[in-house]
Amino acid sequence: MFGAEDYGVDIEIPTADVDRLVDVTPSAVEPADELSFARNVFVPLTTACRYTCTYCTYYDPPGAASLLSPDEISDICERGAAAGCTEALFTFGDDPDDRYTEVHDQLSEWGHDSIHSYLREACEIALECGLLPHSNPGDQTRWQMELVADVNASMGVMLETTAEVQAHGGPRAKDPGQRLATIATAGELGMPFTTGILVGIGETMRDRAESLLAIRELHERYGHVQEIIVQPVVQNERWREDSPDLETIRRVTAMARVALPPEISIQSPPNLAPVEDLLDCGVDDFGGVSPVTDDHINPEYAWPALRELEDIAETAGVPLSERLPVHERYVSEAWLSPRIEAAIEADGPAGRRYRALLDRAD
Ligand SMILES: O=c1nc2n(C[C@H](O)[C@H](O)[C@H](O)CO)c3cc(O)ccc3cc-2c(=O)[nH]1
Ligand SMILES: C[C@H]1O[C@@H](n2cnc3c(N)ncnc32)[C@H](O)[C@@H]1O
Ligand code: MET
Ligand code: SF4
Residue ranges of the Radical SAM core domain (predicted)? Predict the structure, then answer.
């Protein structure tokens, strides 16, 4: 289904499961008894992208696209470490060197033959600063992911939706089959993974149910999905349609909580969604929040101050804790590479945060 078979991944979602899930309402869900977030810096390696999703203001056309230098990466990571961040979030355009010769030429001047080879260097810079890399470079082949797997604590890609939507139309389009294959590859490589759905880009309620069930199916095979993001699309200069209304986002969040097993966190981004109105729908995580950098994908939507998140948690009567980009169970169950384990054991911001989490659990 969903064209995933073209990429060697077989997924079948029974119609009866979709029928059951679309009927779910928030009343079927218990509110979470804990909330978490990660403190991060956003490192937008490049704004060049092979795709042109119509909701996205992040990508720049050839000629205007940026590529951060190693010094710029280092500056951002050092500022992050100084502010107590534990995560370097590498999110950027999909396969930029595929389409932009200037990106390719610049990379080659710096001694790299691909953006993934450069991402590896970027992750190493982050690790030197005591931060844990979490990379979301979009779709990845097995070969690309293998090149950076041991220098990432966790990775991610939004499934967005299993539906063929116009927002992904045009000659260079995101393909649900390829995204499902990326999630499956992460599972095969034993990489703790973040995925999710983008809500309001032309998909139906049934499409949302199918998307959530497809993620569940892949998690059942590999056990690697740590969290799923239920992300409402938001307006910007390229996307003029409304965000989904509150009732829709509440229903979809509850559907996510019912579809996915309890070990998977349900993340709601507090700069894009009315998180205080979603806590009774199963949200238990606010994702990466930055005291230092913007959400470069949605720069018009500022992060709330940490104090505001604490107030929201207090009003709901649940504790709020700061986690690492990789969720604790993957650390304790030894999913991580020696490089990442060493970074967590070292005396940097990530290591100190992890030990604080362990002390709390004692
Ligand atoms: O600031 C953002 N962080 C985004 N993040 C970061 C995320 O909130 C955290 O990095 C993870 O929760 C790990 O701590 C993503 C991570 C992924 O793996 C996949 C998609 C996203 C999407 C966003 C996003 O739109 N904006
Ligand atoms: C990193 C993730 O950011 C999301 N993304 C891209 N553009 C928007 C928007 N206008 N609103 C909300 N999320 C968006 C996509 O889901 C992408 O995968
Ligand atoms: C800036 S969008 C996030 C990474 C990638 N381009 C994707 O869409 O999945
Ligand atoms: S959402 Fe990601 S893949 Fe789509 S255009 Fe933006 S940067 Fe490219």
Answer: 35-271
